[in-house]
Design brief:
This protein has about 120 residues and is mainly β. It is built from no helices and eleven strands. The strands form two sheets. Strands 2, 4, 5, 6, 9, 10 and 11 form a seven-stranded mixed beta sheet that branches. A four-stranded antiparallel beta sheet has the order 1-3-8-7, with no helix packed on it.
Length: about 120
């Protein structure tokens, strides 16, 4: 089993930046990729970015490349999502997921999910 804990969310004003963290523990040797997703109220969960643990290759949803950046700290088994120039429409619960990540943008590529961290952006 793998446990994922997200942190770093909060209430910010439009234009602000946040760095979200996803700390993995447990059987981390089974993780090949970690992805970040988000779900806004009344909407489906959507893919933001993913990173492969073997070579730190990164993948982004086309619409997220400019304001979101994913990275990983190998020593801490932690994956980060740096966000910038946040907009009210970025308000959502942000989730990290871990697993094979065969197709990084698909939810079913991941076996383990965190509980999510709320990001609220005020105008």
């Amino acid at each position: 089993q793998v446990q994922l804990v997200e942190s770093g969310g909060g209430l910010v004003q439009a234009g602000a930046s946040l760095r979200l963290s996803c700390a993995a523990s447990g059987r981390t040797s089974s993780i090949y990729a970690t992805g970040w997703f988000r779900q806004a109220p009344g909407k489906e969960r959507e893919f933001i970015a993913a990173i492969r643990w073997s070579d730190s290759s990164t993948y982004y949803a086309d619409s997220r490349k400019e304001r979101f950046s994913i990275s990983r700290d190998n020593r801490k088994n932690t994956v980060y999502l740096q966000t910038s120039s946040l907009k009210p429409e970025d308000t959502a619960v942000y989730y990290c997921a871990a697993g094979p990540g065969t197709v990084p943008s698909r939810e079913n590529a991941y076996d383990f999910w965190g509980q999510g961290t709320q990001v609220t952006v005020s105008s």
